[in-house]
Write a structure and sequence with these properties.
six-stranded antiparallel beta sheet; globular; disordered N terminus; DNA-7-methylguanine glycosylase activity; alkylated DNA binding
Length: 332
């Protein structure tokens, strides 16, 4: 029955073109979305690069996610089938993950609250009816990679996240004797104490400068207090995160979009987003943050959703300047 979960007594044979059945130690649950639903769109923001060790999307449309929950490490597998989502979870965090499955997948989101004022956004919403804003309820797992993404190229940030999680995290719990799962190489990110014990040369090897590593170290010292932001309204949650030196509006917005499913957490201070929004809504690719916010003012309360739709529209200006210069602190 949808909404129930219980241990599987025995594995079932795999069906061609379908996800393999849960192993005996899996907990399972089914959830039926209340309307159109695109799993790839919904959980896509959790992906930090093509080799993210905490996230995989396989060719059959199944999403795998390794998390460090308040109950411990857990792995969640999500498979869309026949208009519903079949979930299986492993590890100490499995009950926590399954209990919050609907919330993760946007059950508390209200897409109908968005009222498009521009034709581009109306068309994109019509073409992407399965978009919902996810809500993980976990702050640190989104905050740390967002800090790593400050003022560097995405490739550099993704590499740092990959090296640090693989080097200091733990292998994700999952099906036993399951070669396909082993091939995914999923890892759970380190806990707060482990982050705090990473030596300086390991940060250096991962290409993380002292400013970003220092911000992460300050954040993990008060990880429990920061996790409380997941239950706060957006202004209070933003204020809580920004108490930490090195965490500003950009980082807190990028975090709360994922942890809180905040539809109004608009990203300011981004290198490209103002130009993308300006180009899409006003034909001005040279827009700055101030103009971006003015253009998004009609969508107050839903500004993050508006930017998601703009990005999904594909109506973005062609690059005319070099990308951010790639750094290499290993040579310093």
């Amino acid at each position: 029955m949808a909404g129930r979960f219980a241990p599987r007594s025995a594995p079932r044979a795999a069906v061609p073109h379908q996800a393999a059945a849960p192993a005996p130690d899996a907990l399972t649950r089914e959830w039926t979305p209340p309307g159109p639903f695109d799993l790839r769109l919904v959980v896509g923001p959790l992906r930090r690069g093509p080799a993210d060790p905490t996230y995989r999307m396989t060719a059959d449309g199944t999403a795998w996610r390794a998390s460090r929950t308040p109950a411990g490490p857990g792995t969640l597998r999500l498979t869309p089938r026949g208009g519903r989502i079949e979930a299986a979870a492993w590890g100490p965090g499995a009950p926590w993950l399954l209990d919050r499955l609907p919330t993760l997948l946007g059950a508390t989101d209200d897409p109908d609250a968005f009222r498009p004022r521009h034709r581009l956004l109306a068309l994109t919403r019509h073409r992407r009816p399965g978009l919902r804003l996810l809500r993980t309820g976990l702050v640190m797992e989104s905050l740390i990679p967002s800090i790593l993404e400050q003022k560097v190229t995405t490739d550099e940030a993704y590499r740092a996240w990959r090296l640090l999680v693989r080097g200091h995290g733990t292998p994700a719990p999952g099906p036993t004797d399951h070669a396909a799962f082993d091939a995914l190489g999923l890892h759970v990110m380190p806990d707060a104490r482990t982050w705090s014990l990473i030596p300086s040369w390991e940060w250096h090897r991962a290409g993380v400068d002292a400013k970003r590593s220092g911000t992460i170290l300050r954040a993990v010292r008060v990880a429990r207090r920061l996790e409380e932001a997941a239950a706060m309204e957006l202004p209070e949650a933003m204020a809580r995160l920004q108490l930490i030196p090195g965490i500003g509006p950009w980082t807190s917005a990028e975090t709360l979009q994922r942890s809180n499913g905040a539809p109004d957490a608009v990203t300011v201070g981004d290198l490209h987003l103002p130009g993308i929004v300006g180009h899409a809504l006003a034909g001005n690719r040279d827009a700055d943050d101030e103009e971006m916010l003015a253009l998004l003012a009609p969508y107050e309360g839903q500004r993050h959703r508006a930017t998601r739709l703009i990005l999904l529209s594909g109506h973005t200006p062609a690059r005319r300047a070099p990308r951010m210069t790639r750094g290499d602190i290993a040579r310093l």
